[in-house]
Design a protein that fits this description.
Largest sheet: 10 strands, mixed
Distance between the termini: 75 Å
Number of helices: 10
Shape: globular
Helix content: 10-25%
Amino acid sequence: MKRYLVLADGTVYPGTGFGATTATVGELVFNTGMSGYQESITDQSYNGEILMFTYPLIGNYGINRDDHESIKPSCKGVVVHELARRASNWRSEMSLDDYLKLNNIPGIADIDTRAVTKHIREKGAMKATIVDEVTHETVPQLKATILNPAVVAESSTNNAYPNPATGPNVVVVDFGLKHSILRELAKRQCNLTVLPYNATAGEILELNPDGVMLTNGPGDPKDVPGAQAMIREVEQQVPLFGICLGHQLFCLANGADTFKMKFGHRGFNHPVREIATGRIDFTSQNHGYAVDRDSLAKTDLMITHEEINDGTVEGVRHRNYPAFSVQYHPDAAPGPHDADHIFDEFIDLMAAHQAARKGSNFNA
């Protein structure tokens, strides 16, 4: 079925439709990963976005039950160069085409994704639509469309739920979490309680946590203002660790600023340097906003990690409290596991905080 990818600047790319047959509107972004399309499509950080893959063949190993990063995907569309004619993998349970139909997500294939990527890199990420036909109203209507700013509320759980274990008691504040974050904490025997994005500091501290995790999520961190007051109170009480959107919210809560990037970082080939040691990890990333480096000078946060290619702030640590955050995804999924040691640092931080508290209580 002939369909069209139309950008807000009037650029039109003809292609072949697959997945759901509905029209869609979202911000068009590109992902540079060579695999992991299932994890990306089910990553809630893509809520509200049309996801384009730069790797030329997508769908070749199908969809399986193990690699979901959320229960239900929320991206607005999928753009590929070539859709695999058949899926071939021992874990495959359905084709990408069938999976998108099941979840009412339209896709478009036979697109020159290299050309579209170059266009976005030059012009910046922009609104786009996938439609059956292009009329004189298509672009004006696209430009007039206001994208939903409440994507975190859509992506977060509505109710608290546990993931029991016998280790450190960790409260996970869900801004649109990836299941792989829970997996990494579970590997370390953390007793997890997941709370909605709008949980208050009081609700969190009532659970007597050993640590608090701020997860990834979609959209502009400034559209989640209520989280900042919660973070300022919690970071003074217990160790805190933020990932991606959680990193940005942690920085905003401590007086820094964020900005919208021209086309963001999405993929798992981003080299990050740890400033203190010089260690370089190749990381998985998915964000369209970043922390303003200059704004950190007036805060109590120190930069711990930076992206080698463009100098983006990739990690910070609080100078006075046991709190830190990273912009990248140490949980990977998809991507390399170079940086999963960051979870061990969180475990060590909680243990050190607990030891210090016990020593303080004993001395008292």
